[in-house]
Amino acid sequence: MFEVVAFYLFATLTVVMFCITVFTNNALYALSSLAAGMIFISAFFFLLDAEFLGAVQIVVYTGAVMALYAFGMMFFDSLSLVKEKIKNPRLVFLLSGLIALLIVIIFVSPIIGQNVQANLPIHPEWGNTQDVGVVLFTKYLIPFEVAAIMLLVAMVGGIILAGKRMNTSYTQLSENQIEEQKEDL
């Protein structure tokens, strides 16, 4: 029962975060919700007792999104264009509090309840982490290296694209010039 409730909660939260990423006009909101979505994806790994992969998901992918967050703040000067308008702050506070409470209950309930051991295909001498390392660096070494090269190319491309607009800052421009630059994009 616990796993089903946790799965549906994390699935809903993940989809909501990625929808915010896609549909928002604010770069900082998009990056924040992308990071939250990556953290919620790591919850699936923890539910499947793959703690190593869950930790890697948080450290690697969420760390990469936080690096994008920093680049977004530096290069796009997004904070000068943010005008917050929350129509009902009490509702937002209530919903975020309820979601936080549900997440805490989901993480605490296995500690309080019965700890049922799952029948997982883990090597008895090595454990989960060593199994992942052996499979990753033997069977999936070439796809792992191709993914690393693709990430490197994407990072260099992002730096090149961001460097083209480094000569102007939104804080130095007037409102009309900002609108003209938005239309050019």
UniProtKB/TrEMBL annotation:
Main location group: membrane
E.C. designation(s): 7.1.1.-
Main enzyme class: translocase
GO CC terms in record: plasma membrane
Spans traversing the lipid bilayer: 6-23, 28-48, 54-79, 91-112, 140-162
UniProt entry tagged with the keyword DNA damage: no
Pfam family, one: Oxidored_q3
Membrane topology type: Multi-pass membrane protein
Gene Ontology MF terms: NADH dehydrogenase (ubiquinone) activity; quinone binding
Keywords noted in UniProt: Cell membrane, Membrane, NAD, Quinone, Transmembrane, Transmembrane helix
Catalytic activity: a quinone + NADH + 5 H(+)(in) = a quinol + NAD(+) + 4 H(+)(out)
Compartment(s) of residence: Cell membrane
Biological function: NDH-1 shuttles electrons from NADH, via FMN and iron-sulfur (Fe-S) centers, to quinones in the respiratory chain. Couples the redox reaction to proton translocation (for every two electrons transferred, four hydrogen ions are translocated across the cytoplasmic membrane), and thus conserves the redox energy in a proton gradient.
Family: Belongs to the complex I subunit 6 family.
Annotated protein name in UniProt: NADH-quinone oxidoreductase subunit J
Lineage: Bacteria, Pseudomonadati, Campylobacterota, Epsilonproteobacteria, Campylobacterales
